[in-house]
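Subject: Protein record for review, amino acid sequence with backbone structure tokens
How to read it: Take the token row as a discrete description of the fold.
Enclosed: The protein record, placed directly beneath this head.
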Amino acid sequence: MNEKAYRSMAFAGTGNIAIGIVMIVVGVVTGILAIISGARLLKEKNGLMF
């Protein structure tokens, strides 16, 4: 009976680690895209006339 519990806990732990890694990668990519977008906006700011 204990083996089933340990097996399900191991599966849950593995799933949580995988989801955490995916979330870290998505966060880093989103941050990089935000920095690139902001840099483009700052670069184009000089050409704007209101």
User: Anything to note?
Assistant: Residues 3 and 9 are 10 Å apart (CA to CA). The chain has one domain: 2-45. The mean pLDDT is 91. Residues 2-45 form one domain.
